[in-house]
Write a structure and sequence with these properties.
single chain, 12 helices, 3-stranded mixed sheet, 35 strands, alpha+beta, 750 residues, 6 domains, Ubiquitin-like (UB roll), elongated, 16-stranded antiparallel β-barrel
Length: 750
């Protein structure tokens, strides 16, 4: 019997499936469509949303699809559909219309505006309970990003006439979630102190009351994970994994932020090679072979890989191979990673159109000047990405996004570049104090004047010895070129009567341009015009008194900068070189001024960055005249610690008169410190060497003693501004020099 039932099952099941299928296939032709229950939305619109037209054949499956489409419109709270006697009857209940969205409980306008951006339900939109749930989730997520992990969000709906409602959000922020402790699990290579200096999140300390980084922020935590991964990748840990990050509650307000790090054994560069298409000129890439030889057996570094790709990009574009694809092929053998950089030509796709969207203030030409490709050019992904980065670097926009769409032709693309503008103006003030005295400064700055991309910066500073006002205007893309046009107007009064026996009143302006001559090499040229009045102390020497009077100077200035630092701030490798010269054209003293600066950075070991810098300056008259007092040179205070600023070098009576030549050499090396929870602090040991010589108006004052000092210094970015101090011990000096063991400076902007 059981066997019979079992066999019968396999006969009947297909039969029933067939019957059901036939039933679903039965369709009825729609001769008429009737819409009921609608108020604001017209019957035609409801029918459009349904996707059904008269004379369509409608099955049960089709009815279900109609329901799905009508609910998907987000206009209807309830929907029913029925076909009978060839009449399709659609009955709907519309969602209420939101008259007002009311926010209660948030007093801060800044927090409120950020919360509002996360809400899709707006005034005059349809009220949808599903969207309300999503909005609450988005709002809670944004509040967490702001540190309010314990925020409570309650909603209520106030019913009004005519199927309208008021939507009310009642928000209790609660206490901000503080990061009490940051821990790292699985890390056995680097100290926690080092890893804490890599990430943005900070442990809560009372002196960090101005920092928002001490509160939990999920977006910041995700960014921290990327920072940690990049750090390990640049240290040779190719397979590093940041497995997870989580916040562990310590009490009702404090959390422990934990990062789980899995760092596999360090890898080293093996063989590096470049594979080119046959029609590419290999000679253009010879410089890469030297770089490959240098990198071989060095610890693997993502930065170095990206640096190679950037060099390939620059060479390839300059070689006019515009449509290329660069890929990296990596092979690991033991502790070595062999890398092949493969270059392929791709099918040429042309740019049909470039659209700029979202710029309400910034002129379109300002944005287009940053785009490396043009309409009609072959599409190049490298140049496209570079263009987006150029626009971001303007710092005019909160967000820059690019979208590449299919063009109207089979081999064309349309590029949409969308921007979200931000405030670009600044009002600032500052105070500072130190062993050299106190100072006050304030000013106004606009980085994007009238949306033109022009920088306008005006400021005034006052100290015990100097009053200076400045107006600087710069157009970085003058007449849609890659060259800048810069205007600088200055006026100052400098009182050096007590130290150098003179007072100077200067008014002048400069007009110039600068541009990128080669990669990382910028060239600038300008004309400088100065009117100056020098007043000499009645007790000064007769030769100094001869320089009292009015002066006019016109200079041709040239400037050359070569910057190969890996990053502008917190540099760990590379070098920076600068040469400047001011050539007198029309001048009462015909002073020729030269200056050369060079600084190299090297990370010798973990937690260490060492630097070596060199300075050589000269100020001499090309006609043999005496260099005026204000153009004479002094060793900069930051270049010779352990000596009082301005009180080093040749001396005429009681006055330090400077010299025609200055040189200095400075060596620094950061040293580790053992305060785990102190960040933004650099402690360095240093050795300074300097010399000043040449007094053209009185050669008897010349001295050629080399000054030197050693000591310890600290740079600390405090909540009230940067604090720097040094303890220095002079090793060699001249008899007339004034030494200074301790020096500090504290300043801030607000």
């Amino acid at each position: 019997m059981l066997n019979f039932i079992y066999r019968l099952k396999f006969i009947l099941i297909p039969f029933f499936i067939l019957i059901l299928s036939v039933n679903n296939l039965k369709a009825e032709t729609v001769n008429q469509i009737i819409v009921e229950g609608n108020d604001r939305i017209s019957p035609d619109t409801v029918i459009m949303f349904s996707g059904i037209s008269v004379n369509d054949d409608l099955s049960e499956n089709d009815l279900n699809q109609v329901l799905k489409q009508l609910y998907g419109s987000n206009f209807f709270e309830l929907v029913s559909v029925k076909i009978e006697n060839n009449i399709l009857r659609i009955k709907v209940k519309e969602y209420p219309i939101i008259q007002n969205v009311i926010y209660e409980g948030i007093k801060s306008s800044e927090i409120l505006e950020k919360v509002k951006k996360e809400i899709s339900l707006k005034s005059r939109s349809s009220f949808n309970k599903i969207l309300l749930i999503k909005d609450k989730e988005s709002m809670a997520r944004e509040l967490k990003n702001l540190g309010y992990y314990f925020a409570e969000i309650n909603t209520s709906v106030e019913e009004l006439n005519d199927n309208k409602v008021n939507l009310i959000f009642n928000i209790s922020l609660g206490k901000k979630a503080k990061i009490k402790k940051i821990s790292f699990i699985g890390n056995k290579i680097y100290k926690d102190k080092k890893l804490k200096s890599i990430i943005l999140s900070e442990e809560y300390k009372f002196w960090k009351f101005l920092s928002g980084k001490k509160f939990l922020n999920e977006q910041m935590i995700e960014y921290d994970k990327r920072l940690l991964k990049n750090f390990y990748l640049n240290k040779g840990f190719f397979n590093v994994v940041i497995n997870s990050s989580f916040a562990k509650m310590i009490n009702d307000q404090d959390f422990e932020l934990v990062f789980n790090i899995e760092a596999n054994p360090k890898l080293y560069f093996g063989k590096l090679k470049l594979n080119l298409p046959t029609d590419f000129s290999e000679s253009n890439y010879e410089s890469l072979n030297k770089l490959f030889n240098k990198l071989e057996n060095e610890p693997y570094s993502l930065y170095n890989v990206e640096n190679v790709l950037e060099k390939i990009e620059n060479i390839t574009v300059n070689d006019q191979y515009e449509s290329i694809k660069a890929t990296v092929e990596e092979t690991i053998i033991d502790n070595k990673i062999n890398i092949s950089f493969n270059i392929k030509e791709t099918e040429r796709i042309f740019i049909e159109r470039i659209n700029i969207l979202g710029n309400n203030i910034t002129k379109e030409s300002v944005i287009r000047n940053q785009i490396e490709i043009d309409e009609g050019d072959p599409f190049n992904s490298i140049l496209y990405t570079k263009s987006l980065n150029n626009i971001k670097s303007l710092n005019f926009f909160e967000k820059v996004e690019g979208e590449v769409l299919k063009g109207n032709k089979f081999n064309s693309k349309i590029i949409n570049i969308s921007v979200v503008e931000k405030a670009t103006g600044e009002i600032f003030a500052g105070v500072g104090t130190g062993t050299g005295g106190s100072n006050v400064s304030f000013g106004v700055k606009e980085n994007n004047y009238l949306g033109s991309g022009v920088l306008v910066d005006s400021n005034l500073s006052l100290s015990e010895t100097k009053i200076k006002g400045k107006l600087f205007i710069s157009n970085p893309n003058y007449k849609n070129t890659d060259k800048s046009l810069n205007l600088n107007v200055e006026s100052s009064v400098t009182d050096q009567l007590s130290t150098s026996g003179y007072k100077s009143n200067v008014t002048g302006f400069s007009l110039g341009t600068d541009f990128e001559y080669l990669d990382d090499l910028r060239f600038g040229i300008s004309t400088k015009n100065i009117i100056e009045k020098i007043t000499v102390d009645s007790k000064a020497s007769l030769k100094q008194k001869k320089q009292e009077g009015n002066y006019f100077d016109n200079f041709l200035g040239m400037d050359l900068n070569y910057d190969k630092r890996n990053q502008k701030f917190q540099t760990t490798s590379g070098f920076f070189s600068n040469y400047s010269v001011d050539i007198p054209i029309l001048s009462d003293t015909n002073t020729l001024m030269n200056s050369y600066n060079y600084k190299v950075f090297k990370e010798l070991y973990e937690d260490n960055v060492s630097t070596l810098s060199f300075l050589l300056s000269s100020s001499t008259s090309i006609t043999g005249d005496n260099v005026k007092l204000s153009e004479r040179l002094y060793i900069p205070a930051r270049k010779l610690r352990g000596f009082e600023a301005g009180k080093v070098g040749p001396k005429d009576g009681s006055d330090y008169v400077g010299g025609n030549y200055v040189s200095s050499i400075n060596a620094t090396s950061t040293i580790p410190y053992f305060l785990e929870n102190v960040q933004n602090v650099d402690i360095v040991m240093f050795a300074d060497f300097g010399n000043i010589w040449g007094v053209d108006y009185n050669s008897s004052l010349e001295a050629d003693e080399i000054r030197s000092s050693v000591g310890l210094g600290m740079d600390w970015l405090t909540p009230i501004g940067p604090l720097t101090f040094s303890l220095a011990h002079p090793i060699t000096k001249a008899d007339s020099d004034v030494t200074e063991t301790f020096r500090f400076n504290l300043g801030t902007s607000f």
